[in-house]
Amino acid sequence: MPLYCSSLCANMAQTLKLGKRNENFICGHAQTKDSCFMSQHHKSTNTLPTHIASVSKSDQSFSSPVIEEDRKLLGLVSEPEEYCRELDVAVRAVQMSCFICQKLQDTWISNSQINHPYSPLTVAGLSVNTIVSWILSKCLGSGNVSIVTEKDVQTLSNTNKSELLEAVVKTVNECLAEAPRFGVEEPKSALGTSEVLEIISCSNLVGSPSGRFWALSPLDGKMGSACGDQYAVGLSLIEDGEVVLGVLGCPNYPMRKDWFSYHLSYQRMISMLTPPNSETWNKGCIIYAKRGSRKAWIQPLLHVNKKYVWPNHAKQVSVSSVDNLALATFCQPIEKANSSHTFTEGLAQSVGLSNQPLRVFNMMKYAAIACGHAEVFMKFARAGYKEKIWDHAAGAIIIQEAGGMVTDAKGNPLDFSKGLNLESLDRGIVASAGTALHEKIIDAVDASWVSSCL
């Protein structure tokens, strides 16, 4: 089951009763004024103990907490599942974020002033920030939600940004009007400017080695999004310095590896010739995983006029089984502003990565490896640049749970406990489809680094 929870949790998700647990499983979050998910009040005839037992889909048999522990010892059920509700909420938030981006995409492609403060790209990024903050606070309780992101309330609160604020408020309200399609109740009235500013204000966190916070990349890959190519929305939950779940929304991700060689306009033409349906799709997806599951999942974006029903035809994905560098595909970054392409490409050649590289933008590299479309990704920042945690947290846990590895260039795990940046990063980031490939890359980095100019 794609949510990795007990069947009972799945039933709760499908009927959208993900509020605070109580004996009757009444939908909605008790701490919020409005309920979070669409209300379908369904009362269970059983009063369950605090430790929720499982209901098997195959035989619908009920297990008591004591029997449950015995079955765990026999390997018949998984360990207690955590973060199920958070994962469901996060996936819905990213689905709605991708809806915003798709809605604005044609506008920002035709807008030549992509760096203008009022550009559609800026509006999209701030709108995604608002929507994600609103959904997390609504469904998990505002007291439990803190967000680290590149966009904050200061961007909108300046008096000379009133035009930008109005555009964001308009976009957010248009998106929230569609919330019932995603199984989330829309606000009783449209949000005003002060409410939008208040919602985004929870995005002013600076990170912490302890406690819980969310890391959001609202529009990763602006270069790709500006020209109608690849971009992503990344959302992860970090607890006591460790990533516990991650969600990547990739609106233009091609579902066939050979399509990476073509511009999005060609993919659009092919998609029109073979329109996607609920079970098959050509581009656009949500990829997600949570700590300890040893599984990662992919589901399509919500199609027009469709309603979201968990798990939305999700399928399990895993990294490639290729363990020979001569047969591996290397993710070649497109952006050149913050990384050294010369060193990365030279290193790829030195270790025998001779296949045609896969040219992808930013976080899309994590998606490509998790889906088995590529095997190796390396990024070595230019002097003075520090990697941001929101650009890597979601992708790292997805690759790891899909069977791959993500470390720094020394082989150390990425450290998300030092604030906004990956402060203790040793030289760069290496991601691969498995241990054998990873060790060879790490050894090659050590051998080549001294002679580099980085």
Question: What is the CATH architecture annotation of the largest domain?
Answer: 2-Layer Sandwich
The count of strands amounts to 12
How many angstroms separate the termini? Answer: 46 Å
CATH topology of the largest domain: Fructose-1,6-Bisphosphatase, Chain A, domain 1
- The low-pLDDT segments are 3-35, 39-80
> What number of structural domains do the residues give?
3
Topology order in helix (H) and strand (E) letters? HHHHEHHHEHEEHEEEEHEHEHEEH
- How many helices? 13
What is the CATH level 1 assignment of the largest domain?
A: Alpha Beta
* Rg (CA only): 22 Å
Percentage of residues assigned to helices: 25-40%
Question: In what range is the share of β-strand residues?
Answer: 15-25%
Largest sheet: 7 strands, mixed
Binding site for Mg(2+) 1: 150, 219, 391
GO biological process, one term: sulfate assimilation
Organism: Vigna radiata var. radiata (Mung bean)
GO molecular function: 3'(2'),5'-bisphosphate nucleotidase activity; metal ion binding
Summarize the structure.
By secondary structure, the protein is an alpha+beta fold. The chain contains 13 helices and 12 strands. It folds into 3 domains: 81 residues, no CATH class; 234 residues, 2-Layer Sandwich (Fructose-1,6-Bisphosphatase, Chain A, domain 1), CATH 3.30.540.10; 125 residues, 3-Layer(aba) Sandwich (D-Maltodextrin-Binding Protein, domain 2).
Question: How would you sum up this structure, described in words?
Answer:
- Its EC number is 3.1.3.7.
- Mg(2+) 2 binds at residue 220.
- The chain is an alpha+beta fold and 454 residues long.
- The protein has 3 domains: 1-81, no CATH class; 84-317, 2-Layer Sandwich (Fructose-1,6-Bisphosphatase, Chain A, domain 1), CATH 3.30.540; 325-449, D-Maltodextrin-Binding Protein, domain 2, CATH 3.40.190.80.
- 33% of the residues lie in helices and 15% in strands.
- The chain has 13 helices and 12 strands.
- It has helices at 7-14, 65-73, 84-110, 120-140, 154-157, 162-176, 193-200, 222-226, 264-273, 341-350, 364-370, 393-401, 435-449; strands at 147-149, 212-220, 232-239, 242-254, 283-290, 296-300, 315-317, 330-333, 358-360, 376-380, 405-408, 428-432.
- A 7-stranded mixed β-sheet has the order 1-2-3-4-5-6-7, sandwiched between helices.
- Strand 8, helix 10 (341-350) and strand 9 (358-360) form a beta-alpha-beta unit.
- Helix 4 crosses helix 6 (162-176) and helix 11 (364-370) runs parallel beside helix 12 (393-401).
- The chain starts with 6 loop residues before the first helix and ends in a 5-residue tail after the last helix.
- Residues 3-35 and 39-80 have low confidence and may be disordered.
